[in-house]
Structure formats: C-alpha cells, structure tokens
Design goal:
CATH topology: Cytochrome p450
Helix content: 40-55%
CATH architecture: Orthogonal Bundle
CATH superfamily: Cytochrome P450
Number of helices: 17
Structural class: alpha+beta
Order of helices and strands: EHHEEHEHHHEHHHHHHHHEEEEHHEEEEH
Low-confidence stretches: 1-31, 481-487
Radius of gyration: 23 Å
Strand order of the largest sheet: 2-3-9-6-4
Distance between the termini: 61 Å
Largest sheet: 5 strands, mixed
Number of strands: 13
Mean pLDDT: 89
Shape: globular
C-alpha cells in the first residue's frame, strides 16, 4: 500500500498535514505523540500469492528491497489466506517486542505453518504460564550433565558421519548435513537408549521433510477440507502425498519408540526420559499425542535450522580463502576455538536460519516505536535485516568473523534463532553442533566449489538455505594442507 501523507516513510511519526513547514510535534515529548496505526504502514501491493511466491524463491533480496523502499517497518502479505504481517527491522523495535508482557504477544499462534509436522500441544504452541512450566520441565534435557552428554555424542556422530561422506563428485551437501543433524537430535531425545526402530525412523523423517523444499510446506492443510487435501495430494510433484504417507509412518514409529522405552524402565535426562516423567495438574501423564508433538517439534526445529547454518558456513568459507586458512590454522593447532566461534556467529549474522523469526500474534494492543498494533495483528522481527543494519555492523554485507573476536553478540542485534521469553531452548546445542561439524569437515576434507559464484538464497519451509543446497565437491585433505598443519 502507499504511505499516507500523514505518516513518515517508515511509519515512525506524523507529518504536518496543514502545509506548515515546521513540524510542531518534533519538539514534543515522545510519549505525547499520537501513535501511528499499523494499518498505515507501507508495503508491496502485489496480491498475497505473488508476494508469497517472490519471497519463497528469493527471500533475502525481497526483504532487502522492501526495507530500501518502505523503511524500517513495513507490511507484507505472504500468508494464505491473506493477512498483513508487520515486519520490524530496527533493533530497538525488536527489543520492545521481545520485552513485551507475555499476555500481550503470543508465539504459539505463529506456528500455524508448522502444525502439519508438530501438532499443536508442544512447547512451540504454548504461551504464558503453560509455556513457562513446560519449558522449565524440558530444560534439564538440554542443560548441565545432559548437555555434556549431548556434546560428547555430537563429537562422535560428526566424526563418523563426515568420514562417510562421498568424495570426488560434485553434490549438494545440505542433505548429508541434515542427516547429521537428525542423528544429533536422536541423542537429545533418546540419549543412550536409542530405539530399535531408529534406522527406519531416520529415513522416514528425512523423507517426510523433503516437502520443505516445496511451497506446499507452508500450506495449512489442517484448515482445508478433506477434498482439497485429496486434490493437492493427487498432484504428486507437490510432495503432499508422500509427506502424509511418511508422517503416518513416523507417528507409528515414534509411538513404538515411546512404548519400548516405557517397557524398558530406563530413566534418563534425555528428552523422552523427561517427557515420561511430566504429569498434568491432575496427576495424569502426557498423552501419546502430547509426547509425539513435543518430539516432532524438535525433530523439525532442531535440525532444519542447524543444517541451514552449516550449509551457509561452507558456502562462505569456500569463497573466502584467507578466512578459511586462518580457521584451518586454529583447528590444526588445537589450542582453542575463538576464531571458529567468531566464524559461526558471523555466518548466523549474515544468513540467520530464521530470517523472519517466529511470528507473534498481538493479544492486547501494543505500541512499538510509535506504531500501534491491535489485537489480531501479527508481528515479525526480521533477523536478516536486523543483522544488516550498517549502524551496528559496518559494511554489513561483508563476511568478517573478526566482528565477534572478543565481543559477544548483542541480545537484540543478533537474533538468528529468535529471542525473548520463547527463545530457542537448544541454542547452545545448535552452535556447538555447527562448530563441531565444521571442524570435522575441514579437518578431513578439502572442500571445492562447483561454481565460483555465490549461491542465492531460497526458502525451505521457514528457514533459508543455499539455493543449490551448498553444491560442492569433497576431496581427501591434501598433503600440502597437512604439511601446513605440521608447520
């Protein structure tokens, strides 16, 4: 929509409407200024289907063009049925959003795209006290001794998996990386008591998630009539038929894994052990659906994001020789991981897996940055654009890990996995996993690009990935590199 004459280009405050060259509101205290209705925020005019298609195929470029044209706050229509999504790109706006009271903004309703995977009883769907309670109960499976156990498992899993990757042929690395992340989440959920059905469940989960490469993945099939779902399923290239078939099998296998664990009597600090110990206020245990939803949530959210981050890291490192050589020198020396950590932080800045963050539904009216949002509105903190603010990150498009040497990422200026009270529970695991897999890949292989040109971005459900899946070739690490390591 066009910007009304009574608002600034970015919706930040009122313009004089009487032709007077002096803005008499400029000297007024900020609190005294009238808030601008969110409905006046500018944004592209294309129909929702067109916007959704453009975003799906070129998300980064589309977002950058929107901020350049409409300012730091704008409205998008990329959901079906059409409804405005109000995009925030200024870190001060993001800070206000993250600090909003929990009864004002809800994230559970923002997970509607994922419901086909996760159901709607897990942590991602909960808000306020129920979210706080479930989060507190699940936290032991990702902290303390459980975290130490998971990190040890990640190290061994990465070593074995990466050593088995094919060499000498050009291929997309993303599917191989995604398989590693699924095996890591296996250890988060099941610990050392891996279910006997895991080999099949691994294949079924990876096959089921192939729908994420199709725009069909964002369709809310639970809101459709059975007839329409059947029609879409009949169009095999959309991937919905295979998804529904594999989802049914995944549900059955997860049920088998839970019953096998229950019969074994094995306790543990892994997620399944924790879930088996959770009870409702009336003393009843979680239902099979509740357990399935919680596990499927982390199978999806805990793998897609990390796999995207690792893929982007290899995409950048294979184009930046000096950075790669410096990183290799640190890895070979084995004296620390300060530069590796900086590389991971910079990759997550440039290519945050959740480029658009988790949507927040407005439950009570709220004013952010001089804009008033009403009940029913939906807000998004756009990590991709927050991370490319030149006032925070000079030359924001440049890959410079040095930005994070001796400096921790900012709470509101570095948000690759979201933020606020519902921030990612497995952030530590994800970052450790990225560092571990990158260390193994670079230690074992020389990684060669198939094309010197940077890969564009494309959507994969709610994350962004290299458009060609990080298409590269692996070779055994060269003697020259090995000699450099000795020196």
């Amino acid at each position: 929509m066009d910007v009304p004459e009574t608002t600034t280009a970015d919706g930040g405050g009122p313009r004089p409407a009487d032709g007077c060259p002096v803005d008499h509101t400029a000297a007024a205290p900020k609190a005294a200024r009238a808030a601008v209705p969110a409905t006046t925020l500018p944004g592209p005019k294309q129909p929702a289907l067109v916007q959704a298609y453009i975003y799906w195929n070129r998300p980064a470029a589309f977002l950058e063009e929107c901020r350049e044209r409409y300012g730091s706050r704008f409205a998008l229509s990329i959901r079906i049925p059409p409804k405005p999504l109000y995009v925030l790109t200024d870190h001060e706006d993001v800070r206000q959003m993250y600090l909003a009271p929990r009864d004002v903004l809800h994230t559970g309703r923002g997970s509607v795209t994922l419901e086909k995977f996760t159901g709607r009883t897990g942590l991602a769907w909960l808000d306020e006290d129920p979210h706080t309670t479930r989060r507190r109960l699940l936290m032991p499976s990702m902290r303390g001794r459980a975290l130490e156990r998971v990190e040890a498992a990640i190290t061994e899993t990465a070593r074995q998996e990466v050593a088995a990757w094919p060499r000498g042929r050009t291929m997309a690395l993303h599917p191989l990386i995604h398989r590693v992340t699924l095996n890591v989440i296996r250890d988060v959920i099941f610990g050392s008591a891996r279910p006997s059905c895991w080999p099949e469940l691994l294949d079924v989960l990876q096959g089921m998630m192939r729908i994420n490469d199709h725009m069909t993945s964002v369709v809310t099939i639970h809101k459709m009539s059975p007839g329409l779902v059947g029609l879409l399923s009949a169009i095999r290239p959309l991937g919905l038929h295979d998804f529904l078939r594999l989802r049914k099998r995944a549900d059955a296998l997860i049920g088998e894994a839970v019953e096998e664990r229950r019969r074994s009597g094995v306790d543990g600090d892994d997620m399944l052990g924790v879930l088996l110990g959770i009870t409702h206020e009336d003393g009843s245990p979680l239902t099979a659906t509740e357990m399935r939803d919680e596990m499927m949530t982390i199978f999806l959210a805990g793998t897609e994001t990390t796999a995207a981050g690792i893929s982007w890291a290899l995409e950048y490192l294979t184009r930046e020789d000096a950075i790669r050589e410096r990183l290799l020198a640190e890895i070979d020396a084995g004296a620390g991981d300060a530069y590796l950590t900086a590389v991971v932080n910079e990759v997550l800045r440039l290519r945050p897996p959740l480029a658009m963050g988790i949507p927040r539904a407005v439950m009570k009216p709220i004013e952010i940055g001089g804009v008033r949002y009403e009940r029913g509105d939906v807000l998004l903190a756009c990590a991709h654009l927050v991370h490319r603010d030149p006032e925070v990150y000079p030359e924001p498009g440049a890959f410079r890990p040095e930005r994070f040497l001796g400096a921790k990422p900012g709470t509101y200026t570095w948000i690759p996995f979201g933020g606020g009270p519902t921030h990612c529970l497995g952030l530590q695991i994800g970052v450790f996993e990225m560092k571990t897999v990158l260390r193994e890949v670079l230690s074992q292989h020389d990684v060669l690009r198939a094309d010197p040109r940077p890969e564009a971005t494309r959507s994969r459900i709610v994350v962004t990935v290299p458009a060609k899946g990080a298409r590269m070739q692996l070779r055994a690490r060269s003697p020259r590199t090995a000699r450099l390591a000795v020196v």
